[in-house]
Design a protein that fits this description.
Elements lengths: L1 H17 L10 E4 L2 E4 L5 E2 L1 E5 L15 H14 L3 E4 L9 H9 L3 E5 L12 H4 L2 H14 L5 E8 L11 H17 L7 E6 L5 H7 L12 E5 L14 H8 L6 E6 L13 H4 L8 E6 L12 E5 L2 E4 L1 H12 L41 H5 L84 H15 L1
Parallel strand pairs: 4-5, 4-11, 5-6, 6-7, 7-8, 8-9, 9-10, 10-11
Antiparallel strand pairs: 1-2, 2-3, 12-13
Length: about 475
Amino acid sequence: MFWLSSLVLSLCASLTLGQSSNSTSTPAINITGNAFFNSETGERFYIRGVDYQPGGSSNLTDPLADVEICKRDIPVFQDLGINTIRVYTVDNSLDHSECMQMLQDAGIYLILDVNTPEASISRYNPSCSYNAVYLQSIFSTVDDFAQYDNVLGFFAGNEVINMANNTYTATYVKAVVRDLKNNIKARDYRAIPVGYSAADIESNRELAAQYFNCGDDEDARIDMFGVNDYSWCGQSSFQTSGYNEKMKIYEGYSLPIFLSEFGCNQVASSRPFTEIGSLYSTQMSSVFSGGLVYEYSNETNNYGLVQIVSDTEVTKLQDFDNLKEQYSKQENPSGNGGASTSNEHSTCPDYEEGIWEANTTLPEMPSAASVYFSSGAGAPQGTGYDTQSQCDSDDSDDDSSSSSSTTTSDSSSDSSTSTSASSTDASSTSSSSATSSSSSSSSSSSSSSKTKNGAVVVEIPRVFQAITQLLTMII
């Protein structure tokens, strides 16, 4: 019955893809060198967007499956003047066609995190959470959204590395990147970019960027790199914020880089968003391709542009007006903005205990997941099977509200104060809450027990557990 149902689902997906809407308002965005380009006009594409997960992690809902919410918010997006939203979590068992069409009609693209709070790579035990059932969940999300031309890309992970001492987790995130890209190819979808959204951690920001873009296997390298950066606070400047140093760090990077979260709220009143003037100018356009402001709706962490009143109404806050003004007055650079096509992919950083502990040898994809390449991922599991339920230890401490790491230090100081808008709202691969204050010891996990080669070892009993769980779901 499973093979029959998989075949039916595969045929349905193929028919749907054949009917994929190709609205001229959102032609597919391609990557050439270190920049995005409109596939029809050839013009460079800069991300002007917001991070969007109304309800936050405390009241998790799928905003792209609720037509009333889409009718409420998409006109607000248009008023703001954005062209992209990032959504952290969706329910892949629900219908997203109507909202995706509404976004397309409005000329708005989507960057989607494929993980959910339940289906994600665990910082505490990444080898355990990387299993066939987890891959079934994220492949199902790709199967659902690959049909839409206005999907700009997928994020394979969000701030999985959130401190200096859990860099070993990058090995598994890179394996997920490889598996997602191979799945997209095997399913004959268009070449949808797959990337990673990184916490801006001073000790490993450059190492992380290098690692995810290194190696001879092109399929294991990301296509785009997002940085969650809150270093420009209030009336700061290119130099004071440390943006000038970020430009030096990422200069020569061969892929598009953008701010997957920005908008420090450590200000006396509303956020002025003065960084827009630098981000969308030739001062930064040779390296950066825009960014996404954190975040659309006002949640407990007070980063909102609007206050949600009801399912049909929002109130625009002063932050909204300030951002709208900055977006409207700052034009994109002319031409290609200094984009480069000659940069080479990065050299892999050396393994160094306590500094960078990710391996260049990646774990093999669980064999039970190979069927998804040929037959599709099968019946969606919604917001995800708990991939950590088969682990020996409870990962709840790892996924607590204190595990995020994005700092808001003005300039490039060593301040460890976290505003943590971050990411961690809803879809962080660790399910962290966006309200965290600083990196806690709970999320450092048991790094002392990790060995240099341990990341490439998959424990046999857990593989069998994953297969057993998968067979149980199939039956």
